[in-house]
Amino acid sequence: MIGILSFLGFTAMVGVISYLATRSTNEKSSDGYFLGGRSLTAGVIAGSLLLTNLSTEQIVGLNGSAYTDGLSVMAWETLAAIAMVITAIFLLPRYLKSGLTTIPQFLADRFDVSTKTITSGLFLTGYVVVLLPVILYSGSVAISGMFNVPEMLQVSESTALVLCIWGIGIIGSIYAVFGGLKAVAVSDSINAIGLMIGGILIPVFGLMAIGDGNMFDGLDALMTTNPERFDSTGEHGQEVPFATIFTGMMLVQLFYWGTNQQIIQRALGAKNLAEGQKGLLLASFLKILGPIILVLPGMIAYHYFDGSLASSDLAYPALVGAVLPKYLVGFFAAVLFGAILSSFNSVLNSSVTLFGIDIYKQHINKEAAEGTVVRYGKIFGVCLALAAMFIAPMIANAGSLFNYLQEINGIYNIPILTIIVVGYLTKKVPAIAAKIAIFLGSGLYILSQFILKPQLVDRALESARASGITDDAALKLVEADAYPHFLHVMAILFLLNAGIMLLIGKLKPRAQAYEQLYTKQVDIVPFKYVKQVGIMVCTIVIFIYIYYAK
After folding, report:
1. pLDDT tens for residues 142-187?
2. Which domain covers residue 209, as residue numbers?
3. CA distance 521 to 97
4. SS3 of 49, please?
5. I need a surface site. Which of 263, 329, 441, 481 has the fewest CB within 10 A?
6. CATH number, domain at 156?
7. CA–CA separation, 162 vs 172, rounded Å?
8. How many domains does the chain divide into?
9. Is the CB of residue 356 less than 8 Å from the CB of residue 30?
């Protein structure tokens, strides 16, 4: 009962503070609703960025990867810091100079409206078909299991799952659809503090459990028992081989932190460029500490359970259940619930923004007043949330789906990153080049990863089994040798698409060179020490890799 009360108390507190912080914001204007009135400060931006990124699929999934592969999977966290530095120094000044509300708006100015519409459609498809239902399902499984909802309510597991899905969906929709970006960002910031505290408690209690009550003895035992697992350079066959850091990994990070509407919308709402840059840099520094929450618990679980768990995805929830004191379960469930809500309402808010600005205003009602755009955006958001709540229970095997999602996202993330990068670095590449890059990039990636790869991998595994190879580790290496890692494929397609765009620009340049105009929406004087702090963050990341390299 104490756990339930602390859970409800913390969740209610976040809601009340969010309401009080946003009641003075004009939600009837596009800037007010979609960008929090362009009033977000560094702390709010940093907190919202971090918690938007964190949810159950990452907390559980990345720790599961660490349970299997060890420290090398920290690349998903630490390299994000470098991507955020690049975004702060190079991309954000250009975004705020143009007064963008959505990333596709830049593509309309640089190329044409149809390029913007295609890109918005790709973003919406990725958000609606994949992210929203998965976030709801995975979060509901975590909450239902943590509170043992079936037993508490005397219902079946499937009924408990549906109840949790609708509970999360309704609360998340209230924040995202009716509160706008500022309500999302404020609630994110509060939950980020709770998640940092709760997230750090898990490895602390875990280390104490394996160190007979002494955290430092536990850390010493962890590092000396399996020292090979503290290797920052991933081996061949692991999730993040070292070579991928220099190819597709950084491209994925740049897309996610620099061009993904769901993420960058927080920085677009900055009150000025300096606050936006400080928010990104603060988040980048905190991201370096991310492995403490997202990697270390998985490594502790491997030691604690002696690698005996039936599935790596059980590593984090099993460790939480084993080491967290019962009186803290309610608080931890509340901050985990906040992380789930954050991802759900952030994706939903970004979807509403893309529809309202890039679809409704552009193609359905060009003369619509700002209040009308916001109203129809909210209607779209409600429909979207309802659809996600109906679809979510149909996801039968969410645990294995998350690793697959990283690969699926390549269908749209690399083509979009390509046209944005080429668009900013050149002035005469025409719109037709961007359209070709989008369709060619997506088509070739689908052909590579979902047609050619399964055939070649299945053939290699059949041949290996026929020759007497049955060991799982050996078969994993056979699978890795059969086809290039998907991050390498992303890098190849990025270079190919960029080359094609540049060639078209050379053969058929646009008549008039593109010039970016300053809309004067916000002050774009940069943070005085942005480059110095950025270099410091990058240096720390490189030092960590060198220190833990074996």
Report:
1. 777 666 778 878 888 788 888 888 888 887 777 655 555 455 556 6
2. 2-548
3. 8
4. helix
5. 481
6. 1.20.1730.10
7. 15
8. 1
9. yes
